[in-house]
Amino acid sequence: MDLREAWKKLEEEHLEKPSIWKAVEHPEKSRSKHPVIRLKKSLETTLAFAVVFLLMFVVLIFLFDPWLVKLFIGIVIGAYVFFTWYNYITYLNLKLQWQKALEGSLKAALQNIHSVVYKSIRFQEKASLFIYPFSAIAGFMMGLSIHQNFEEDIRDTRIIVIMFIAAAVLTPLCYYLAKWMYKISYDKYLNQLQSLIHEIDKPE
Length: 204
Known about the structure:
- By secondary structure, the protein is mostly helical.
- It has one domain.
- The chain is 82% helix and 0% strand.
- It has seven helices and no strands.
């Protein structure tokens, strides 16, 4: 159902516009309630944290001399650059679809928003599994480089084994922690948005 047609029908029936359409017509009045606004704020928070951590690692790469430490920090920086860019694209797509809700089909716009955010989160959860090991190794090496005998220590088989064990343990822990954080920040509002889409599908 087209948004304007829905409004016209409601006016003819002398009914009040549902909250979902009020939020689209006047989003500033529903800023703290509508799931799309909540998703937008969650993406803004995610972007802010990504930029902060990116800057932190950029500073760290200049604080450590061993090239091996710089290499792994550089890999982490590259990952943060990618995820920051990816989240920004998701954010722009959400804003674009939210604007389109006024210009075309409300249902299609909300479905696109749900799809864009859902796919973005699921992709990042999977992609992060390849990044966490490098992050863990980078952290381990930063701690190890404090010792004066870093070059010798990094050749020690026992230390290498410990480093890989630490990466193997921390990777799933970080994955499930991130998954839990995504659930708190996004899943609740994605479910609410899906409920609103189902509302539109109800028989008139």
